[in-house]
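Page 47, continued from p. 46.
Same chain as before, 450 aa.
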Amino acid sequence: MSIGKHCYFAIMIIATAVLSTGVARAQDYDMILQGGHVLDAKNHVDAVEDVAVKDGLIAEVAPHIDPKNAVKTIDVSGFYVTPGLVDLHVHVFAGTGERGSYAGDNSVYPDGFTFRAGVTTVVDAGSSGWRNFEDFKEHIIDRSKTRVLADLNIVGAGMRGAKYEDNLDDMDGEATGKMALKYPGVIVGIKSAHFTGPEWKPYEQAVIAGNIAKIPVMIDYGSRRIERPLYDLLSTKLRPGDIYTHCYSGLRGEQDPETGKASKAMLIGRQRGIYCDVGHGGGSFAWTVAIPMIQSGYQPDSISTDLHIDSMNAGMKDMLNVADKFLAMGQTVPQVVTEMTWNPAHEIKQDQLGNLSVGAPADIAVLSVEKGNFGFVDMYNTKLMGTQKLTCQLTVRAGKVVYDLNGISADLWDAQPTSDPKQAKRWTSFTERPFGGGAHQKFPVSVPVK
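Result:
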């Protein structure tokens, strides 16, 4: 072999080695969110940091991560970077065709309402019971890009109107608990809701189910009855770690009528470790209740929407709109983020969620704060004015960009791409657009999120 050929092969070997090293380095991370203000309550982070993602998990959080180590780097400077938001109270058992039912037409399909508000995990709050949960799982939970978890209704038939929800004969704590045990980590709580009778049975059976499955009970207390006062529910019936939703409704004794502050029932509940969940909904949040309770120090443990077909177009718009109301009442951005991330995840014993720990699911929200004059409306169509509101700029679910309001992850159409288009599936769930023929010839390829 000639010296020329030896030189040629040597050069090729060196070039291949260099290229291989560069490729390996470029593949250290799928994506870096660079320069954002990270808020992570679990890990006590409140600082400007970079967040790196690899294979659907958080890979590193540090003040500076070299962008050369990632397929894609997204500049999020000037924005907050938070764990994906966790909404503890929604109704998403859609598609059954049942009119006037939360196991039907009153529910919404989750993916159209979650990512655009930074929400990556929702808990369906009792739309299904043990009799129809597996139908809900097959048609909604298993088909949604949003992580959908469930509180199982103590009523076996689920949340289908008073005919079902007042049926004491269909409240079976043992059957409900057994179904919850069958799907650990998917069924994360037990729900009692809308009961109008005087009996304690719904709550007692819910606790039985919760004890069997070792999961919390969430209570929507239904009609106010003197035979079952709220004080007794929160002081004796529920357990520490259970959840009382609609805590600022004022409809069932949450507020002291003389002082406007939290009632003795709510205070004893907090002392015993029962969580206060907002559950705004269409009829469960009033300024006349929330403002004096908040001003007296009774803050929520978790912010949630009670999303359904009526609430989303009334006073409650989405998760961030509910958070905006607490900003208007004096809470800080770190406070409301904690109440939408780490706190709700911890309440349902899903501590792998709601944080940006290395190894945690790469569910991330990128939020901006807009300044101006904004009106925030309660269930009585009265408003409180505020000067700031949160907007979701970008949502990452399982390491993929699933929502991008202003294209901060995108390249300009007439510029050279900042990452290899062939590797787009590493960081985005948007339609992959491989290059071929012309520089911008497009061949849509679906890239699913798992």
